[in-house]
Amino acid sequence: MKKLLTALLATILIASGAFCALPVAAAETPTSRGEIIFADVGWDSIKLNNALAGLIAETVFGYTWTEIPGSTPITHEALINGEVDVVMEEWSDNIPSYYSDLDAGKFTELSINFNDNYQGLYIPQYVADANPGLKSVKDLKDYADLFPDPEDHSKGQILGGIPGWEATEIMAKKIEAYGLSEYYNYMIPGSNAALDSAITSAWDKEEPIVTYYWEPTWLMGKYDFVLLEDSPYDPETYQDGIGAYPAVTVTVAVSNSFYEENPEFCAFLSKYHTSSSLISEGLAYMQDNKATHSDAAKWMLTQHPELIDEWLEPDQAALLMAAIGGDASDARKGPENWIFQFPLVLKPDTEAIDNAVRSFAASASPVLDKIQGGLGALVTMFQWLLNHIPWFLLILLVFLLGWFSRRKLSSGILYAVILTLVGVVGLWEEMKITLAIVLASVFLSLLLGIPIGILTSYSPRANRIMRPILDTMQTMPVFVYLIPALLLFGMGNASAVIATVIYAIVPVIRLTCLGIQQVDHEVVEAAHSFGSTKRQTLFKVQIPQALPTIMTGVNQTLMMAMAMVVTCSMIGARGLGMEVLNAVNRIEIGRGLVAGGCVVVLAVILDRLTQGWFTQDKKSEPTVENDTNP
Amino acid sequence: MTNQEKDIIIEVQHISKLYGMNRQDAARMMEAGKDKSEVFKKTGVSVALWDINLKIPRGKIFVIIGLSGSGKSTLVRCFNRLNRPTSGSILFEGRDLSSLSKRELLEFRRTKISMVFQSFGLMSHRDVLGNVAYGLEVKGISREERERKAMETISMVGLQGWEHQSCANLSGGMRQRVGIARALANDPEVLLMDEPFSALDPLVRKDMQFELLQLQRKLGKTVIFITHDIDEAFKLGDTVAIMRDGKIIQVDTPEEMSAHPADDYVSAFINSADKSKVVSVRNIMITPSAIVRTTDSLDHAIRVMSKNALSTVYVVDDQIKLVGILPIRDAIQARNAGSPMADVVHTDLQTTTPDALVADIMPMAAEAVYPIAVIGDDQQFKGIVTKASVLSSLI
Predict the structure, then answer these.
(1) Does this model's pTM top 0.80?
(2) Chain B residue numbers touching A622 (CB-CB < 8 A)
(3) Does residue B163 fall inside a structural domain?
(4) Which of A10, A153, A508, B208 is the 20 to 30 A CA-CA neighbour of A447?
């Protein structure tokens, strides 16, 4: 068997070696000028700009190009470090350090891509039609009932921008300055994807929504939204939140090293200029024709040949025209490629899945809203509980629990001190919010997980069915179900709890099952031999005997719930996670460390306290069950 | 004998238990008289029990003996239906157990029959009282009542004062006492004991056997006792059944079985019963209740003897090597005469080693004036063997 395997392996190696030689030799022939790395910040307009510039780089200048994904602050840092060559859309006002970095010469700004864009508070057209009185930001005061906050029925909800963006902070000040905070809660969704799905979800259900957004974006191109009026932009008062947002200057920037080494291409980029409407046109073409960004780029250039003359020298323009017109077949597709590229690709109809989920979300919304309300209420209940414990009492409680569970005075003191530190760094409120979400998620996980674990321990068939499901739950990337959860259960605590439960319930199911299966066979037999019913055997013998293992599962579930804190903030759960997210998005390393440290403190305390009871349980004298049978 | 036959509590009729898919073929092969291992090879069916017929008299100890794998544990679990026989029936006081409904079965287990397990089967999350009261608890008896009853059985097995201890704190012998108390607390008619003493060391086992006999005589319960030890079987059993390969070979009283073994297998089994040939001194030696050192004064030696109510005491040196024995009469004389201890210590002792067989020291024991001293390899004093313990080990 082993010999056969080695022989097989050797054959594969030799064969692939032989084939490898061919394409390597072939790739050398065209004049290669290296690879340009564009930043891909995630939204469609920058991808379209990348495709436009990339197409020209390829056909006119002989480069190859690629994109590196990352958030706005990360790609900005990468640009400064020279890891990214070109950023086609630097949203200068949304990057706190943009102008100081530019002045310091850390990167090179080549041109203004566009500066005719809008941002501000938007409402859907159907809301505008139904409420002709709602025209400006100031009018919102009278319409708070129209946009109820699902987690706080006394107020309305305004959806904010992306954590870390300048515009997001300005919006918070604006709400304050216009006296809207009395009527509205300002909800910051944790990520662009979360905000998009909240808007999409509202649109599908034709529900009222008021949200910060910006153009040009596919979302604003696709859906009919109305920008609420504001007093004109005034640089004096803008920082206090009064007056409209200015149009953000979106620039094309390159790294310093790229600028020095590629003067010809940079000459082209310094002439590069689009407009909000032009980009929106391209994005709409993509959306309507299911076209790729590259297709849309070609289409735009054929539609607007004046751009080519504007951007390029005549001889260069001729090269580009020839490439677009001739539609040269992709040189990379050689005859031998079926060996290295998978030859048969059947794309699953993912769009049908999208539509199914979205129409389900719209049609089942009465039920889903109830679930959302219930989960929200659960978190609120824990929050209420924590809010009614004075800070010194909570610290005292942790001290006493630590002391008694670990049987060491020093442990109690240590836990109390590190918990006090959380308060000292000013994150006590955030810590309580996070704790409430974690406790609610763990509570729900145990409520569901322990019975499922018991069931799977009894039935080998249930076990066989559950195993792949549990594997999937543990390994499926969280974001894959985070966004559907958002569509179905809205933004904030409800979705956060659901995502956390999906991720954290697995160990308690597994270890409950294992614990019960591992109970000494003779002990279970003894229980049967005395005429115990199944229920008596379960509750009087199997569960108590399996308790140490089950408690290990509870502990692990708690830890995994803690691990989800930051992820959950990306769908709008507040607390320590949001603090981390904010810090990371603004590259505030110190703030991130402090908030992250608090997450660790909370996790360590929860871990030690739950472990403590479990070890104590084992040593202490067991108590006699005092209930009689039903 | 005839009286017993009239009062049969359990009657086993043609019980078989087969494990596997192809049970019908296997049954046909067994009927044709094929060997158990041959059947397994051909059909993949393992025959745990085959055509068992037994009549178990009320109020007696009925011992089932066999080597491991002979099916005795499978059989005993058929009596409380932890196992269901593939075919045949078991009549308990004339009632077929396989006809019991779920509820009747629970009632049967709660009132008529209870079980003691080889590795005790105790619930480590409960204390002694909680374990003993378990059977009463599942019956739905009030806490007060069941604890009173449990306390009674706890004191019956000699564990009073331990009732609130965790089972983890008990020795093996004490744990099995808990197991027995738990089984007795329900006041069952039949006590099933599945090799209850196999996990205990020989001395404790002997005590437990003795106590079980006493308890059984006092309470008059029917005991079905499983063992692989023929001595235990003969010591306890009013009736003994020998099993081999899932079949019963012979059922008889110990006397009858010794006199008329049914076949060579039975007689080989019985021959292994002569204990003195297998039991070593280690198993029967005891630790002397007191020793003195050569450096101690005679006054001290006399005090030690009087305190422990001994007429002699063993004298050891600093390395606990045996020097000799000091009778109290000689010690008092020497003290009065003012002579040192060394003058009066008797050094001409009978000694043996822990690994010597009891049979080998029998002649020595018959003649010995004092108990025989047991000396280890390193000349260290390990213990003593009395005449009484040599003789009693043969029972």
Answers:
(1) no
(2) 124-127, 130, 166
(3) no
(4) A153
